[in-house]
Amino acid sequence: MLTFDHVTKQFGALKAIDDVSFKVKPGIITAVIGPNGAGKSTLVNMAAGSYGVSSGRILVDGVELQRLPKHRIAHAGLARTYQNIRLFDGMSVVKNLEVALVPPKVGRLVADTFGLTGRAAAEERRARCHAVLERLGLAAHAEQQAGSLAYGQQKLVELARAVVAGPRVLLLDEPAAGLNHGETELLKQHILALRAPDLAMVLIEHDMKLIMSISDTIVVMNRGQVLAQGNAAEIRANTEVQEAYLGQPGAIRDIEAAARGRRNRVRIREGEGLTWHQP
Ligand SMILES: Nc1ncnc2c1ncn2[C@@H]1O[C@H](COP(=O)(O)OP(=O)(O)OP(=O)(O)O)[C@@H](O)[C@H]1O
Ligand SMILES: [Mg+2]
After folding, report:
1. Could you tell me which of 29, 77, 121, 264 has the fewest CB atoms within 10 Å of its CB?
2. Which pLDDT belongs to residue 135?
3. Ligand having the closest approach to the CA of 37
């Protein structure tokens, strides 16, 4: 279980995260949604150790992540993907995954201690990478340079790299961004297939159709705070969420008028490609 406990993040004068508390349970998919700048990626960056917290605690199974150096966070079982693809373009797909199993910064002594060196260990790692590539439909691309793959495939390689070490917490930062309809559907099937009793998954997304169809619980962030949490039906019915989506109540009227030529209650419906209102 991943726990955000009264977490705050200050960037200079900006309070990007303002007293956020919620739990991410294993066995289910927890979505985090919210307008641009709401603080979603900042939560991931803090959990992964890229950013420190200004106050509060982030815990995995009771272990406080902020007390661990970054490479130990991966050992604690937390993996993430990036909003912008961060693959080693010139390396093969399978090498990109192997890197996740032996971080280059780990020295020889440390590697020996953890049993990461030696031919048998290397073969085992490679087999593991190939098994994950197979699972995500990427086996045919294993030896290709990551940078030469289509964008949608690169997003899947990022996912493969995140899951190869068998994390207990998986943070996906906009995995569907930039994907077409078919690629998004494929991604959805992969994410659903990854769901496991001992894996806590966080899905950050703007694609409401995807969110509403696969999330067990949805955390709505707005201006650094948790605005609401609930299942898809509860979030759809929440008027505060609708306003965060669409702007001020006046804006709802304008959008309604433009969309339907008459006043109606605006609802966030499955499949509606609404974009967030920019605060
Ligand atoms: N390293 C940083 N330095 C200063 N400000 C930052 C930094 N990272 C994020 N911020 C600010 O913190 C706020 C939250 O940003 P964040 O990237 O977490 O939003 P987000 O919800 O992921 O948005 P998006 O949907 O656009 O990805 C924004 O105002 C952003 O400009
Ligand atoms: Mg983001």
Report:
1. 264
2. 96
3. 1
Q: Whose CA is nearest to atom 24 of ligand 1?
A: 36
- If DSSP codes are grouped into helix, strand and coil, which group holds residue 57? strand
Q: 227 C-alpha vs ligand 1 centroid, how far in Å? A: 17
Number of domains in the chain: 2
Q: Which of 40, 171, 206 to mutate to test the pocket of ligand 1 (most atoms within 8 A of CB)?
A: 40
Among residues 163, 183, 210, the one where a domain terminates is: 163
Cβ(42) – ligand 1 distance below 6 Å: yes
Query: What are the strands of the beta sheet with 169-173, ordered from one edge?
Result: 78-80, 169-173, 200-204, 29-33, 217-222, 225-230
What's phi and psi for 183, nearest 5 deg? -65, -40
**How high is the pLDDT of residue 33?**
92
| 16 within ligand 1 shell (Cβ under 6 A) | yes
Q: Are 172 and 157 contained in the same domain?
A: no
* Apex 97 CA angle, 209 and 170, nearest 5: 40
Identify whether residues 151 and 173 lie together within a single domain.
no
pLDDT of residue 208: 84
Ligand 1 centroid – CA 155 distance (Å): 21
Amino acid identity of residue 66, one-letter, is: Q
The domain containing residue 142 runs over which residues?
90-163
E-strand ranges in the chain read 2-11, 14-24, 29-33, 55-60, 63-64, 78-80, 169-173, 200-204, 217-222, 225-230
How far is Cα of residue 276 from the mean position of the Cα atoms in its chain? 18
Along the chain (279 residues), what's the average pLDDT of each consecutive run of 10 residues?
A: 96 96 97 92 92 94 83 79 89 93 62 67 90 96 96 95 94 93 95 96 91 94 93 85 62 40 35 36
Q: Indicate if ligand 1 lies below 6 Å from the C-beta of 34.
A: yes
